[in-house]
Write a structure and sequence with these properties.
Elements (H helix, E strand, L loop, with lengths): L11 E8 L9 E8 L2 E6 L6 H9 L6 E6 L8 H7 E4 L11 H10 L5 H14 L15 H13 L5 E5 L7 H14 L5 E6 L10 E4 L5 H6 L4
Parallel strand pairs: 3-7, 3-8, 5-6, 6-7
Antiparallel strand pairs: 1-2, 1-4
Helix pairs in contact: 3-4, 3-5, 5-6
C-alpha cells in the first residue's frame, strides 16, 4: 500500500527525551529513549503518564526541553517534508475541518503531500471505501456519529501513505465494531514498512501490536512505591 516516492526507509527514534510545559511545572515526560520498529507500537497508560506528550514530541509539534528526536529526515521540526509527506497524526480532538465535507477533508490532507490530481481522486475514493465513509462523504463532520468522525480522522491521517503515523486514543469511547474496523485498517497499513504508534489504554488494540510499551510504570506515584517493596 505504501508507495514511497523517495528512497527513504521509515525511521523514528528518541534519545533521553524530556519535556515540561513551563519551568515551574512538573515534568510531563522525563528521560525516555527508544528506537521504534516498523509495525505497530502501542503506548499503554492512563491519563497523565506522558504518552500523548511523547506523540507530540515525536511529531515535532513540541520541541524537547532536553534530548532529541531523530527521523529519516533528521529532527522533525527542521524539515517541512516530514510534515507534508511523511507524518500522519490523529488527535484526541480529531481536528477535522468543520466547514467542509468529509471528502474535502481527505482531499486537502492528500494534496499537501503533492500528489497528482489522478492520484488524489484515486486515494480519496480508496480511503472513503476502506473506512466505510462513502455514504457520508458529502456531509460535514459535525453531522456524523463519534465512530464515523473517528474513522474519517484516521482516513485523513493515512490517505497520503505516511511513513510514520501517530494516533492518540483512536478508539476511545468507540463500540466493538468501529474498533474492529480501525484495528483491521491499521494492521493492513503497516504491511509495507510504515511505523505506527498508538497511545491508548484500550486493551482491545493489544492483539494488533508488534510492541507494547507500558507507560504506567513511568508515573511518579508508581516510582515512589518501588521503595516500599
Amino acid at each position: 500500500m505504501n508507495d514511497f516516492s523517495e528512497n527513504l526507509s521509515a525511521h523514528l527514534s528518541c534519545s533521553q527525551l524530556s519535556y515540561r510545559y513551563s519551568k515551574k511545572s512538573d515534568w510531563a515526560l522525563d528521560p525516555f529513549s527508544h528506537e521504534f520498529q516498523k509495525g505497530i507500537t502501542i503506548l499503554k497508560g492512563f491519563s497523565g503518564c506522558g504518552k500523548s506528550t511523547l506523540l507530540r514530541l515525536l511529531a515535532g509539534y513540541l520541541k524537547p526541553t532536553e534530548g532529541s528526536v531523530q527521523t529519516h529526515r533528521g529532527a522533525p521540526w527542521r524539515n517541512s517534508k516530514y510534515y507534508r509527506k511523511d507524518l500522519g497524526f490523529v488527535f484526541q480532538q480529531l481536528n477535522l475541518l468543520p466547514l467542509t465535507t468529509v471528502k474535502r477533508n481527505l482531499e486537502l490532507a492528500n494534496s499537501l503531500a503533492g500528489v497528482s490530481s489522478a492520484e488524489l481522486k484515486r486515494n480519496t475514493t480508496l480511503w472513503l471505501s476502506k473506512l466505510g465513509l462513502d455514504a457520508y462523504k458529502s456531509r460535514a463532520p459535525s453531522t456524523l456519529s463519534g465512530g464515523q468522525q473517528q474513522r474519517a480522522s484516521i482516513a485523513r491521517c493515512l490517505i497520503k501513505n505516511p511513513r510514520i503515523a501517530l494516533l492518540d486514543e483512536p478508539t476511545s469511547g468507540l463500540d466493538d465494531l468501529n474498533t474492529s474496523i480501525i484495528s483491521k485498517t491499521l494492521s493492513e497499513f503497516v504491511q509495507n514498512g510504515s511505523i505506527v504508534l498508538i497511545a491508548s489504554h484500550d486493551p482491545r488494540l493489544d492483539p494488533i501490536a508488534h510492541e507494547i510499551i507500558d507507560f504506567n510504570n513511568r508515573l511518579p506515584l508508581e516510582r515512589h512505591l518501588e521503595s516500599l517493596v
